[in-house]
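no rush on this but wanted to send it before i forget. what follows is a protein written twice so to speak, once as letters and once as structure tokens for the fold. mainly i need to know what kind of three dimensional shape the backbone takes. thanks a lot i owe you, the record is right below.
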Amino acid sequence: MKKHWYLLSYDIVNEKRLKKFHYRLSKHALALQKSVFLLEASTPELQRIIELVACHTHTQEDDVRLYPISHPKAIWSAGIQQQVFLGLNCANTVEPQRKTLDLVSYVKQLCHLSA
């Protein structure tokens, strides 16, 4: 069954539910930041993750979002969590020695990658 890539982000108010949610989600996805996960899932796997979200969130207090992405290469990253992407060996990152990358240079890099 074909799998697709997703970014899942969350803001859970209750600390106990937050810890439980993070722990359970980390079994299915890769933490990119404290509340942002990258996952690759088939439709049935995604349905199980959505059920997990529904069981551990309160719709009046919490915010959980799921964004489909074409591939981790679609994500640009820089900073201390950049090592996560380098470990995947598939996302667009700024080299560790470079502090900044202006927008024009970034767009040129993307055009070069897709050519």
Remarks:
- The CA atoms of residues 3 and 42 lie 4 Å apart.
- The first strand starts at residue 4 and ends at 11.
- The helical segments are 15-25, 43-56, 82-88, 103-114.
- The two ends are 29 Å apart (CA to CA).
